[in-house]
Amino acid sequence: QVQLVESGGGSVQPGGSLTIYCAPSTAIYRFNYMGWYRQAPGKQREMVATILRHGIPDYEDSVKGRFTISRNSVDNTMYLQMTNLKPEDTAVYYCNGLLLNHTYWGQGIQVTVST
């Protein structure tokens, strides 16, 4: 069964930058859409950014202008470039993909923004 694997999480200071990655277990799959969701302690999981197969992105308002989502057409890896990070960005970030009308989730990676 296909899996989505995230990488690149960690801790940064406010105003810093971080890029996180998501890749399917095999590059032959072409997801109809992929996206990043996050869940902070005590809060609901929310959409951060999504991208369709042909590259049309959508962003949560709070991250517009700071985050950039992209997909690599060669290896099918999805990227989330995060800049000007804020403490409220602290959350577990989950990779999400839709393939053959089935939703797949990664295991989640921690992103912590603090002094």
Give structural attributes.
115 residues; four-stranded antiparallel beta sheet; seven-stranded mixed beta sheet; globular; mainly beta
Structure write-up:
- The protein is an all-beta fold and 115 residues long.
- It has strands at 4-7, 10-12, 18-24, 33-39, 46-52, 57-59, 67-71, 78-82, 91-99, 102-105, 109-113.
- The strands form 2 sheets. Strands 2, 4, 5, 6, 9, 10 and 11 form a 7-stranded mixed β-sheet that branches.
- Strand 5 and strand 6 form a beta hairpin.
- It is globular and about 40 Å long.
Helices and strands in order:
Blueprint: E1 4-7, E2 10-12, E3 18-24, E4 33-39, E5 46-52, E6 57-59, E7 67-71, E8 78-82, E9 91-99, E10 102-105, E11 109-113
Parallel strand pairs: 2-11
Antiparallel strand pairs: 1-3, 3-8, 4-5, 4-9, 5-6, 7-8, 9-10, 9-11
Order of helices and strands: EEEEEEEEEEE
Question: From the alpha-carbon coordinates, what is the Rg to the nearest angstrom?
Answer: 13 Å
Q: Counting H and I runs of at least 4 residues, what is the number of helices?
A: 0
Give the helix/strand class. mainly beta
Unreliable stretches, pLDDT < 50, 5 or more residues? none
Number of strands: 11
What value does the average pLDDT take? 93
Q: What characteristic shape results from the CA principal axes?
A: globular
Estimate what percentage of residues fall within beta strands: over 45%
Regarding quaternary structure, what we see is: single chain
Major sheet attributes: 7 strands, mixed
